[in-house]
Design brief:
Layout: E1 3-9, H1 15-23, E2 30-37, H2 44-50, E3 56-61, H3 70-78, E4 86-89, E5 95-96, H4 100-110, E6 118-126, E7 142-144, H5 145-153, E8 164-167, H6 168-174, H7 185-192, E9 198-210, H8 223-241, H9 247-264, H10 267-280, H11 283-298
Parallel strand pairs: 1-2, 1-4, 2-3, 6-9
Antiparallel strand pairs: 4-8, 5-9, 6-8, 7-9
Helix pairs in contact: 5-9, 8-9, 9-10
Protein name: Glycosyltransferase 2-like domain-containing protein
Domain Glycosyltransferase 2-like: 5-110
Organism: Flavobacterium kingsejongi
Length: 299
């Protein structure tokens, strides 16, 4: 068995649809690891219902961690897998089209070039009642992970944890960074898990990503935590990995930090931006940044 599918379980509402999408896979060479985050909702009847059709390992954790650290819950779920070489973390509300796992095995068994250590499916967003919210998001078959990040920052595409399969060895090497709400934790992971190399896309297979007011991305009452996570993510990118990005890519990342600064107007953010401009950009770019501050305060 090469693939572990890890499901951090908490809500029952869409969980059966997630399991049914796994039952429907044309290639069932995977094991499902379900980590119950001390949920008040009982998923055992559903697990028993599909246990003959899926290879399932279920574990209930008595302490809820997802409310304080989603990453901590992901990591204790992952710690329970066996020796699978590849893994994915599938949300208990997302679904996979029936050819997804088959497309993955077709890639790793037949692709002649060195394999990417991060693989993704094409995606589309669906609503709580399974209506399509977007058309399918396709990607280049092979794309530098930094290029993809910049496309996402420009809002030319989207990304979420459930659409990725990644190397277990790379996960062990890097782990997930524990940002608030795990917001951008997946973005950083897939830069690191790919060693800032290429991500391979299986455009013939689609992951359905559910958007609802029950999900972190669908809620609008957590904007402060998302902003904090974004600040930590962008700051880490330039502090630790500035040499992985071109001048124009660094400029785009700095623009994201500047947008946060003009909201919170914290001296800490200003000092960080000053260092980034002077160390990684140019005196002219820093002058323009100061000019934007003056204009902003006048307005």
């Amino acid at each position: 068995m090469k693939l572990a599918i890890v499901i951090p379980f908490y809500k029952l509402l869409f969980f059966e649809q997630t399991l049914v999408s796994l039952v429907s896979q044309t290639d069932k060479r995977f094991k499902v690891y379900i980590g119950d985050d001390a949920s008040p909702e009982d998923c055992i009847p559903l697990i028993e219902k599909y246990s003959e059709q899926l290879d399932i390992a279920y574990h209930r954790f008595e302490e809820n961690r997802g409310s304080t650290s989603l990453v901590a819950h992901w990591e204790r779920c992952i710690a329970r897998i066996d020796e699978e070489e590849w893994m994915m973390i599938l949300g208990d509300y997302d679904t996979l089209e029936k050819n997804c796992i088959g497309a993955f095995y077709n890639y790793i068994e037949n692709f002649s070039m060195p394999l990417s250590t991060v693989i993704r499916f094409a995606t589309r967003e669906i609503s709580a009642d399974n209506k399509l919210l977007t058309s399918v998001f396709y990607h280049p078959d092979s794309e530098p992970s930094t290029n993809f990040l910049i496309r996402k920052l420009k809002k030319h595409t989207r990304s979420s944890l459930s659409e990725y399969i990644f190397s277990t060895k790379k996960y062990i090497q890097y782990k997930f960074k524990d940002f608030p709400l795990a917001w951008s934790s997946d973005d950083l992971a897939f830069l690191e898990f790919s060693d800032f190399g290429t991500i391979h896309t299986l455009n013939e297979a689609i992951a359905n990503i559910r958007v609802s007011d029950l999900s972190i991305s669908g809620r609008d009452d957590n904007s402060k935590l998302k902003e904090k996570a974004s600040y930590e993510f962008y700051s880490l990118l330039l502090s630790k990995y500035h040499d992985k990005f071109t001048y124009l890519e660094k400029e785009k990342i700095i623009q994201k930090i500047e947008a946060i600064f003009f909201k919170n107007k914290k001296f800490k953010t200003f000092a960080l931006l000053t260092g980034f401009h002077l160390n990684y950009m140019s005196p002219l770019s820093y002058f323009k940044f100061l000019r934007r501050i003056i204009i902003n305060y006048k307005n």
